[in-house]
Automatic annotation (TrEMBL):
This is Multidrug export protein MepA. The chain crosses the membrane at residues 16-37, 49-79, 99-117, 137-158, 170-189, 195-216, 236-258, 278-300, 320-345, 365-385, 392-415, 421-443. One of its GO terms (biological process) is response to antibiotic. Its main location: membrane. Keywords: Antibiotic resistance, Cell membrane, Membrane, Transmembrane, Transmembrane helix, Transport. InterPro entries: MATE_fam, MATE_MepA-like, MATE_MepA_subfamily, MdtK-like. Belongs to the multi antimicrobial extrusion (MATE) (TC 2.A.66.1) family. MepA subfamily. It is a multi-pass membrane protein. It is found in: Cell inner membrane. One of its GO terms (cellular component) is plasma membrane.
Length: 454
């Protein structure tokens, strides 16, 4: 085990959390520039309707990454705890069987979605005006989806070892390259939204190549072996079970976006296209500001899982307090900005006055109770880090499936377009209350137990 991995159980918890969170937050923000940069160049370089077409496609991208999250986050939970327990062979075996399965599975997913591409777009609520943009963007993204899935799994395995700087290098490589290639493909080569998609795939390929090089050069605590490239189904099942909450979360975001776009298509009237485009901008900002929270949760989960596996429950309790407090501050700050000066973010994408005005109107409702979202993320991370897959599944899925989607299906039809935006704060409050109620018994047990309870 490397010294860097061992420090997960020895370094002061506060400093460790900061040292792992800040690079991850920075890396997640940089990685999020994939979508932000695409949106900026597409909106300004192609037009307001183009971002609507690209936004319609976003749920499909989310589903692809949802499958990557199942494998990557599930394997990371197991690998982190096995390394904490000093069981290197079990950690390597879990990592390698996950990588083998992800290679095969990613091509199956790519083929299935390609075969049903246009019917899927119709289900997502694409309008006649937006369809050409959606098809042009989605085709290259789908062809590159195996690369995206493999890169995501490798990144999760690196952070499970505590090698946040390697994970950050992957994200930086892809994001910087994407920012360089986007204007070339969109403006110089005049390829429009298809050029933006191709630039993204090339950038993801570079990140995957870098990840593979870390393992080939022996830079990791886990050493992959040539004879083990096979699927152990018994080892794979715990990976899938623990990763399922992340799939539910990613897929839920996809379903939520699709449900919202469908609602806007039905109640938006002649302004449906501009509402979909405006929501597309707000959705990009929402996904971007959630990324620091995800980075914080990744650091929280890695430290918590390692120390839970090592039986260091006092360190776990400290992590819980730090995680909840930090997430509250982060989400509260974001909420304050988006309620008072949303143009700080939204104005980056467009100078079109109608599009900007509608996006600002939407954001002031969507972010009304965003302060509470952080607690749900951290509680879900705790359940996953400690192996409580069922609780993690409930905590991660309730916001979208139990509260947001039902509200989105009913409120717009009852009170019009404003009902679509009111569904978001309603879901934020309800899911936070549920997550806290689920977590309280486990925290009481954590405070009273001298050893971990699986």
């Amino acid at each position: 085990m490397t010294q860097q991995t061992e420090r997960l159980g020895t370094a002061p918890v506060g400093k460790l959390f900061v040292s792992m969170s800040l690079p991850m937050i920075f890396a997640m923000l940089v990685n999020g520039l994939y979508n932000i940069v695409d949106a900026i160049f597409v909106t300004r370089g192609v037009g307001p309707l183009a971002i609507g077409g690209v936004s319609i496609v976003f749920p499909v991208q989310m589903i692809v990454f949802a499958f990557a999250a199942v494998l990557g986050s599930g394997a990371a939970s197991i690998v982190s705890r096995r390394l904490g327990a000093k069981d290197h062979e079990a950690a390597r075996h879990a990592a390698q069987t996950t990588l083998t399965f992800s290679i095969l599975f990613s091509f199956v997913i790519c083929a299935l979605v390609l075969l049903a591409m246009k019917p899927i777009l119709s289900l997502l609520g694409v309008t006649e005006a937006l369809m050409p943009y959606s098809v042009d963007y989605l085709l290259p993204i789908l062809l590159g989806s195996p690369i995206a899935i493999m890169g995501a799994v490798f990144g999760d395995l690196l952070r499970a070892e505590g090698k946040m700087q390697y994970m950050m290098m992957l994200m930086l490589t892809g994001s910087v390259l994407n920012m360089i290639l986007d204007p070339i493909f969109i403006f110089v080569l005049d390829m429009g939204v298809q050029g933006a998609a191709i630039a993204t795939v090339i950038a993801q390929t570079a990140g995957l190549c870098l990840a593979v090089s870390f393992y080939l050069r022996g830079k990791t605590a886990i050493h992959l072996t040539a004879r083990e490239w096979r699927i152990d189904w018994r080892a794979l099942w715990p990976v899938v079970a623990l990763g399922l909450p992340f799939f539910i979360s990613h897929a839920g975001a996809s379903f939520m976006i699709a449900t919202t776009n469908n609602a806007l298509s039905q109640v938006g009237g002649n302004a449906a296209d501009i509402y979909i485009s405006a929501y597309g901008l707000v959705g990009r900002v929402l996904m971007f500001v959630i990324l620091p929270l995800i980075g914080m949760m990744i650091a929280f989960q890695t430290i918590t899982g390692y120390n839970y596996g090592a039986g260091e429950l006092s360190r776990v309790r400290t992590m819980v307090r730090l995680g909840l407090t930090s997430s509250l501050i982060l989400c509260g700050s974001v909420s304050a900005i988006m309620l008072t000066v949303p143009q700080v973010f939204l104005g980056i994408f467009t100078s079109d006055p109608e599009l900007l005005q509608r996006a600002m109107q939407i954001s002031r409702t969507v972010f009304l109770c965003f302060t509470l979202v952080g607690s749900t993320f951290i509680i879900t991370g705790y359940f996953q880090a400690t192996g409580h897959a069922r609780m993690a599944l409930i905590a991660s899925s309730a916001r979208v499936y139990l509260f947001l989607i039902p509200a989105m299906l009913t409120l717009p039809r009852l009170i019009g377009i404003d009902g679509a935006w009111m569904a978001f704060p309603l879901a934020d409050v309800s899911s936070a209350i549920l997550a806290v109620l689920l977590f309280v018994p486990f925290y009481k047990a954590l405070r009273s137990q001298p050893t971990p309870v699986a």
